Amino acid sequence: MSPLKHIIYNCKQATLLIEKRQFKKLSFREFVELRIHLAGCSVCTLYNKQSQVIHKMVQQLFHDSMQATGVHLDTGFKQELQIRIEEELNK
Amino acid sequence: MATENQYLNPRQWVEAHADYLYGYTLSRLNDEEQAKDLVQETFLAALEKVDKFEGKSSERTWLTAILKNKIIDVYRKKSSGLRQADVKVAEEDQQDFFEEDNGHWTKAYAPQPFGIEDHDPLVGKEFNSILQKCMQKLPALWMAVFTMKHMDDATTDIICSELKVTQANFWVIIHRAKLNLRACLQKNWI
Question: Does the record's keyword annotation contain Lyase (chain B) (predicted)?
C-alpha cells in the first residue's frame, strides 16, 4: 500500500491527525490526507465532531473550576495556615 | 530594591489567595488532601523566596507559578517509571479499538452518536462530573500530558521536557487519552 492509501483508509491515523489539528497546524500533506479520509469515512466524521465538543467541554471545565464560586478551604485549615505563616515571619 | 517587596503581603495571603490556589489545584489534581498540602507548601516555599520576588507580576501570579511547579512535580512523580502498569493496561485495552491489519474502527468500538454532537451548554453539571470521572481513569502520565496541554496551554516542548516524553510520543499520548475519554463518555453518558 502506498503511504497515501495507507492514511486514507486508516482510522487510527486519521483520528491522530484530528487530535493533532486541535493544537497545531497540520502539514499540507497531513491536511489533505485527513480531508480525503473524512470525505469517505462517516465514523471518523462523527469522531471528529465529538472530539471537538469534548475539547471545548474540557477547556470549559478547567475554566469554570477557576471561577471563585464553589471551592473554599475550610476555616480551620485557613487559620492553621495563617498561624504557620505568622510563625515563619516571626522567626 | 526594598521598594519592590512592598507588593508582597504574606500576612494577607491566606485571606486573599488561599481559596483561589486551592481551586486551581483541585481542578488539576482533584484530590482535596493533596490540594491542601500543596497550598500550604506553596505559601511556605514562597516565604522562603520573598526576596527573589521582582515585582514584575502580581502577587497572585507569582504564587500561582510556584504552585504550578509543585503540581508538575506531582504529575512527574505519579507518572515516573519507564513502563507504568496503568499505561500498559490502557494501551492493551485500546488495541481493540482499531483493526490490527488496516486501522479501521472495530465494530465494537466505533463511535456512536451519544447526544453531545451539537454542543449544548445545557448539558452542564452532570456531564461535567462524568467527564471528570473519565479523566480520573486515565493513566497518570496521559492525565498529566492531557491536563497540562488543555489547561494551561503549556507548550508541547515544556510538557515533553517536564514529563520526559518525546515529541512523537506526546501526540500519541494526546491521541490515546482522547480516544479513551471519548469511549468512556459514550459508555457513561446515554
Answer: no
Q: How big is chain B, counted in residues?
A: 190
Chain B contact probe: residue of A9, A12, A47 with most B CBs at under 10 A = A12
Residue of B nearest to A44 (CA): B111
Within 8 A of B39 by CB-CB distance, chain A residues are: 73, 81
Residue range A23-35, pLDDT digits in tens: 999 999 999 999 9
Show me where the domains of chain B are located: 2-78, 85-188
How close does chain B come to A11, measured CA to CA in Å? Answer: 5
The stretches of A1-91 forming alpha helices (DSSP H) are 3-8, 11-21, 28-40, 42-64, 75-90
Shortest CA gap A28–chain B (Å): 18
Using the beta-carbon criterion (under 8 Å), do A19 and B178 form an inter-chain contact?
A: yes
ipTM: 0.81
Query: Per-residue pLDDT tens for A42-60?
Result: 999 999 999 999 998 888 8
CB neighbour burial string for B44-72, b if at least 16 within 10 angstroms, e if fewer: eebbeeeeebeeeeebeebbbebbbebbb
As a CATH number, domain B2-78 is 1.10.1740.10
Give A35 to chain B, closest Cα distance, Å.
16
Helix axes B140-151, B85-94, angle to 10 degrees: 80
CATH code at B85-188: 1.10.10.10
Residue corresponding to grid cell 492553621: A80
Of A42, A15, A38, whose CA–CA distance to B103 is shortest?
A15
Domain ranges of chain A: 3-90
